[in-house]
Amino acid sequence: MPENKSARADRILDAAADLLLRWGYRRVTIDEVAKRAGVGKGTVYLHWRSREALLMAVLLRESVGMFTAVAEHVRRDPDQVRLSALMSALYLESSARPLVLALYTKDTETLGTLVQTSSGTQVQGVKLVTFEEYYHLLREHGLLRADVSNDEVSYACAAVLFGFFTMSQLAPAEFAQPREQEAGMLAGVLRARFEPPRPSKRAAEALAPKIVSLLEDLATQYHELIYRPDISEGG
Amino acid sequence: MPENKSARADRILDAAADLLLRWGYRRVTIDEVAKRAGVGKGTVYLHWRSREALLMAVLLRESVGMFTAVAEHVRRDPDQVRLSALMSALYLESSARPLVLALYTKDTETLGTLVQTSSGTQVQGVKLVTFEEYYHLLREHGLLRADVSNDEVSYACAAVLFGFFTMSQLAPAEFAQPREQEAGMLAGVLRARFEPPRPSKRAAEALAPKIVSLLEDLATQYHELIYRPDISEGG
DNA sequence: GTGTGACCAGTTTTGAAATCTGGTCACAGG
DNA sequence: CCTGTGACCAGATTTCAAAACTGGTCACAC
User: Fold this and answer.
1) How confident is the model at residue B235, as a pLDDT?
2) At what angle are helices A150-170 and A118-140 packed, to 10 degrees?
3) Where is the signal peptide (chains A, B) (predicted)?
4) Cβ of A160 and B159 within 8 Å?
């Protein structure tokens, strides 16, 4: 055993991710994944309880990368913690990751029934809670308009984000825009509706570190689910 | 022939619409439509060139109803011509018409490949032109913010509208909102981003009749396509 | 202890026959 | 001569059983 277990897990995930993108959810077989990762089939099951858990882990790893990148943005420039900037970054970072994009556009060819499974909804739940916490903190720091409720931010913001994702995917060619421009439009909409007219730079600086931890916590939770999916066995 | 031809066409469309909603695109058969409409199968083909043309006509008739209703809103209250109000009305009227809703949410189970066909894209084209004209007139009357380009209105507005439609369809139950509230949120987003701070009431009153005609023209064009689909034969 | 692939049961794919359906048109009815 | 019809056809879809495949296990090799 000349190799690190975590490195092996990542090699398996690499193979699975590659197949998932190339062939779509249905065609990914454990045999093929194992072959490409250079391990025996049984070895895959030493890491994940089932095929579904493996593919879910692939998505989670992509998501970790995305959230880490967004956290990095905020760390570098605290002003990026504002709703419009953070969602814009989320949009761009997701767009650059095909599997995450598939997640947001409900691409069932690529993701199959993965998001509808119990572990899938569980993961969505974790993400949801994080977002609600983010909105809550934004408000506490005076970075949301007073005349818009948190429920409205939560719903309308999701709708807008969703709209931009689907639009970029299936808009006819004559409508296509550069990603950065789409992200800019998205930011414009969110800023105009949900941010106060003159957001306090100081408030953003105070909030930024909290959001960075929040995102890193989320990444950590995901990381746990990727490499220790069997943590709550024997239910 | 004791009956009006247009009435017969509508009876066939009624039957087809019913089946389309009940059974979805794939299961609608011309035989069944004819039987329910109380006519022979061949008679259906006296009205429409093909199955696809018939089903397209069903959608067009629904759309005509929707646009007519929106036009009526604007006629009753000229202030409803503003982007946020008109889109909000469009949202509500579409939501009340399952087939139109299916159109906006790309419900392929119900619509099949209908929107992707040549006549489908042609119809979309007509609608698109009408919307562009609407944006153009809004700007001419000073009812759009000067700092947002028409291209941005066109793209971002579509994205936002799209987002609210998809959100209402597939949001998890705990997110569900009353339609009117969703429409209100939609209006709030569009107003904040695209409308000038204090839109002129007088401008709206001047514009309203033009938009009413624009919508009625669109309805007329659709009407033509519904009952005379073979107008451009022998290509 | 760690890793493997032969093995099993249940699912999916295959392919050819049977059925169905969009579209036509010769003819009935007036 | 005109309108409306349903039997008919070719091609598409469904059916169903046999064959092939695949997720997951575990006895065994190292």
Assistant:
1) 26
2) 120
3) none
4) yes
User: And the tokens for A176?
Assistant: 């296509």
CB contact (8 A) between residue B155 and residue A185: yes
Q: Dig out the tokens for B100 from the structure.
A: 């139109």
List of chain B residues with pLDDT < 50? 1-2, 231-235
Q: Which nucleotide is nearest to A51 (CA to C1')?
A: D23
Between CA B22 and CA B58 the distance in angstroms is: 14
Helices A30-37 and A51-76 meet at what angle, rounded to 10?
60
Buried b (16+ CB within 10 A) or exposed e, A116-142: eeebbeebeeeebebbeebbebbbebb
Residues 6+ apart with CB under 8 A from A155: B167, B171, B175, B177, B182, B185
Torsion (CA) A221, A223, A226, A227 in degrees, nearest 10: -110
For strand C, is any atom closer than 7 Å to the CB of B115? no
Rounded to two decimals, what is the model's pTM?
Answer: 0.93
Please give, rounded to a whole number of angstroms, the shortest distance from the CA of B162 to a CA of chain A: 5
Looking at 1.10.10, 1.10.357, 3.30.420, 3.30.530, the CATH number of the domain A63-225 comes to 1.10.357
CB A49 under 7 Å to nucleic chain C: no
Six-digit token string for A45: 């099951």
CATH number belonging to the domain at B1-47, selected among 3.90.1150.10, 1.10.8.60, 1.20.120.140, 1.10.10.60: 1.10.10.60
